[in-house]
Amino acid sequence: xxxxxxxxxxxxxxxxxxxAISTPIYQTATFRHPAVGxxxxxxxxxxxxxxxxxxxxxxxxxxxxxxxxxxxxGMAAITxxxxxxxxxxxxxxxxxxxxxxxxxxxxxxxxxxxxVTHTDTSNxxxxxDAVLPGKTKALFIExxxxxxxxxxxxxxxxxxxxxxxxxxxxxxxFMTPYLQRPLEFGVDIVVHSxxxxxxxxxxxxxxTVVARSPELxxxxxxxxxxxxxxxxxxDSWLQLRGLKTLALRMEKQQQNAQKIAEWLAQNxxxxxxxxxxxxxxxxxxxxxxQSSGFGAMLSFKVGDCARAEKIINRSKLITFAESLGGVxxxxxxxxxxxxxDIPVEVRERIGITDDLLRLSVGIEHADDLIEDLERAMAEx
Length: 380
Fold this sequence. Notes:
With about 375 residues, the chain is α/β, with parallel strands linked by helices. The chain has helices at about 5-10, 50-65, 75-80, 100-110, 125-130, 155-165, 175-180, 215-225, 235-245, 245-265, 285-290, 305-315, 345-350, 365-375, and strands spanning about 65-70, 90-95, 115-120, 135-140, 165-170, 190-195, 205-210, 270-275, 295-300, 320, 330, 355-360. Strand 2 (about 90-95), helix 4 (about 100-110) and strand 3 (about 115-120) form a beta-alpha-beta unit. Helix 2 packs parallel to helix 9, helix 3 (about 75-80) packs across helix 4 and helix 12 crosses helix 14 (about 365-375). The chain is globular, with a radius of gyration of 21 Å.
């Protein structure tokens, strides 16, 4: 079945008794047992809830995994995955990644003895050199990275990881399963901030994990139930509703992003554009092999801090806000927002400078968005 059909049918007629087209919102914490020793399959919503289960099943199908798990946020999902590891374990992590992910590694889990090396995972030699024999247990990868859009070759990195018996974890938030399915390449675990493209309307906070194997599913399932960071039924329903239009939204958004990236690349006020769909992007050929599109995220540098702030302040149609993936176009200032918790010296070393702006391109007409940027960039 084509992925567009799976998405359109997300949560369709899961209630066999009533035949409801939309999955009901089972707003209940607990369930009645018919008798001692007899169960309906449900007992407590932390463990399993029918609305959440409908979402988890469709996420597993979309990613091609064994089981899916829905969490209260993307960071809750990542937290659950990191609980697979123990004190003394070492992970190799993309050096250019969401600031909240950097923070959870450095501020939350390092204190429990989890060691991390941040490196450019698009460079296989650097990944190889970062392995600590006997200690390295996994690779945690963003591809494309946030916000510099670096591309990791999944086939190459998984071949290497398997040779070292390392788990591979990919944050697939930017691409979504509509455009990229890392499990098909042999990745072990996929995580998402479902708040972004999966929800698509900036109205739900959620996270998902999809595991490739039954063994990993059992481990993640135990962590989800025992720690309890689950997604509630109302938000599960909102996530299901958002998934139904994912294909349509992603097509329009990446079409707009391509047009805007090409316009920015020709603009004399822009120093550099980071978008995998541009022919000058170093990871374009890899992206074409492992994804069916280039996504709707892009970043660009404008030369200095003052110009960056002027563009933000003068934009009228494009909204200055954190987050991404909604139908509305958002502009973000990484050094002060999404990546503010990363030390300055680390940001500057990898290229997240004070003249860098990030766009999450929405479904508006591309010409209107370009006109807004052109007006914001105009000289006084």
